[in-house]
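User: Can you fold this complex?
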Amino acid sequence: MEAAVTKCRCDLDAELGRVIARHEGKKDDLIEILYWVQKNYGYVPKDVQLIIADKMDVPLSAINGVITFYHFFSSKPKGKYEISLCNGTACHLRGAPQVLARFEKELGIKPHDTTGDNMFSLGLIRCLGACAVAPNITINSEPRARMEPDLVPEIINELKEKE
Amino acid sequence: MPMVTLTIDGKEVQVEQGTTVLEAAKKVNINIPTLCYLKDINVVGACRICVVEVKGARTLQAACVTPAAENMVVLTNTPAVRASRRMTLELILSNHPFECPTCVRNKNCELQSLAEAFGIREVRYSGANPVHVMDDSSVSIIRDPDKCILCRRCASVCEKVQTVSAIGPQGRGFDTVIAPGVDMVLAESNCVNCGQCVLVCPTGAIYERDQTEEVWAALADPQKHVVVQTAPSVRVAIGEMFGMEPGSVATGQMVAAIRKLGFDKVFDTDFAADLTIMEEGSELLERINNGGILPQITSCSPGWVKFIEHFYPTLLPHVSTCKSPQQMFGALAKTFYAEKAGVDPADIFSVSIMPCTAKKFEAQRPEMNASGYQDVDVALTTRELGRMLKQAGIDFNELPEENYDDPLGVSTGAAVIFGATGGVMEAALRTVYEIVTGNTLASVDFVDVRGMEGVKEATVKVGDLDVKVAVAHGLGNARKLLDALQAGEANYHFIEIMCCPGGCIGGGGQPIPTNYEIRQKRIDGIYTADEAMVLRKSHENPAIQQLYKEYLEKPLGHKSHQLLHTKYTSRGQSNQL
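Assistant: Here's the predicted assembly.
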C-alpha cells in the first residue's frame, strides 16, 4: 500500500487523482481506492466520496453503499482507540451483546460512533476466527479474548492512563 | 440457439438454452409467483418466493435465476414449495409494518396479494422492524424505508434502465435502506424524479407526493378560478384505474369526470403540444437555416431535462429552449386566457394532470413564473386524479362523453401522439414538412419513429434537405445518443428524447402496474386517438392560429420568448454542488 504524499486534506484531490490513475480508473478497483483513503486518512467522508464519484464515474449511491456495507470503512473520523466487537455467531452466543451494552454505557456512544474527545470509537465486526476464546474484541487491531462486561471499565481506564 | 427440453409439472416444454425455469414455465401457462423479479432488469433471486423443486437438486431452487436444462424435472406446487413460500412471506412480513388500510398501495400491492393468495393469517416471527426516517424532501417522490422489502427493483431500474443510480442499497442487514447515500435526501441527489422506481415498487415504499388536498382546497375556494389541463397520455391510462383495458381511449369520460369534480374550465395540454410544435419546429428551422447548434434536442420531458443538466451539462445548448407543453399552457393560462376570460390571474389556480412525477418538480422550478405567478400551481399524476374521482364517487365508466372547453381545449392528432415515444418527432415532421415545402403530406404517418425499439433513426426528405432524426426513450438509451453526440458521431438535425420507456404513456405517474405489455397497449391507444382526430397537424389547429393572430404574433416572436421559452441549469453529481 502506497502511503499518501501528504495528509493535508487540501491535497486530497490531487492525491486521489494519482491513486485512481494507478488503477487506470477501473471501476472494479473501487474498493481498493476506498481502502487507500481509509488507511491513509482514517475515514471516507462525503466530500471524498464525491471526488471519487466524479473521477471514477461511479454513482455516489454505489460508493456509499460499499462504505456502509463493510464495517471496515467509516464515513466519520475514528477515535485514537478503535474498539471493535465481534458480533459473529459464537461471540454473540457467548455474551457479545452484553459486552457491547457495557461499552455503550461506559463510553456513551453507539456502534460506529466516536466519543466527543476523539479518544474512542466503537465498531462491530464479524468473525475474527477465534471462536474458541469468544467473545472477542480488537483494540486498534490488537485482539483481546474472553471478554466480559465487568472487564470493560478496566480496559477503558487502562487506555486512558496511557495518555 | 440450441434448445433444451424440460418437464414442468408434468408438461414438456422446449425453450432456448439459457431461459430460466420461470420463463419456461410461463410458456406453458404455469405462473410461478415472484416478488423481487423484474424481467431483464432485476434478476437476482433475492426474495425466494419463486422457489421450485428440481429433481436431483439438494435444495429448492429460485426459478427466476435457475436456467432450464435438458431433461430437468421441475415441480412448482408441492408441499415443500408451498411451505417454503409461506415461511418466506412470513419472514418478510415480520419486518413490514401492518398498515395496509392506510397505505398508498392498499389493494395494489404485490406483497399484500401474495399474503392473501397464500392465506397468511398469522406471522410467527418478529423482525427487528427498525424505524427509519421518511424522506419527504423531494417535491416529486417520497421514500418510506419502513415499507421497503429490499427487493432492489427500484435501484435496478434507476441503474440499468435510467443509468442514474440516484438510489442504491446503503448499510447492511436490518439497517439496510435504499437511499441516495451519505445521509443525502432525494432532493439533494441527482434523482431526476422520473418515478420509474415508483412503478416497480412491489409495496408502498416509494411513491408520488400526493397533492390532491391542495387541489380539493382550491376547488372549494369560491375566490379561485380553477383550470385544469390533461396530458396526452393520461386519456389512454386513466381508465385502468376503473377496470378498463390498458390503452382504452377514455378522453370523453375523463373530461366529463374532471368537470364533475368542479373545475371551472377543463382544458387540454394537447393545445399546448400543438403550440410546442409551432415553436420548436420554427426553432429547428432557424437553427438549420442560420447555422445554429445542431442537432436540436426536445425539451418536453422534465426528467430528461434534469438528467442532461446533471450528466451532460456541456450539451445543454443542444436542448430546445421551448418550455414543455405543461409549462407553455401554464404561462398562457395566467396571461392570454386570464385576459380573454376577464379573470385576475392572481385568482387562477392552474392544475395539470400528468403521467409524470417529474412534472411536479418542473412546475416548481423557480424560472417557471412567466405570468408573474407560479405558472402551474399543482401537477397531479394520473394516479392522483384516479383517487380524486374515486373519492367523489364518480361512476367513470358510465359517464357520457364530454368535450374540452374552448379555446385551450382545441387540439390535433399531432398533439395526442406526444404521449408515445417518437410522437413529438412525428408531429414536428408533419408540420415542418408542410411549412417548408408548401405541399400537403400524402401520409401523415412516420412509422419509422414509432415503437418500443430503444433508439430509432429516420431520414426524411424535406424539400432539398435530407432531415436526419433520431428518437430515444428511457435515459439509458438517451445516454447512447449523447455519448455518440459527444464523440462527434451523431450527425442528426433533430433528436427526440423521452425520459421514460415507451414515452409518457410509461411515465412514473401512470397507473400501477405499468409493464412492457401495458406500455404497448397504451401506445396503440395513442395512435387510435390520433387517427380519430379530424385535424392531425399542429399548424392546422385553428385555436393555435387564432392565438398567434390575437396574441403571440408569430413563432419565436417577442411574446413567445417571454412566455414559452426557458433556460437550463448546469448541475453536478448532486444538487448540492
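Residues 109 and 215 of chain B are 26 Å apart (CA to CA). Chain B has a mean pLDDT of 97.
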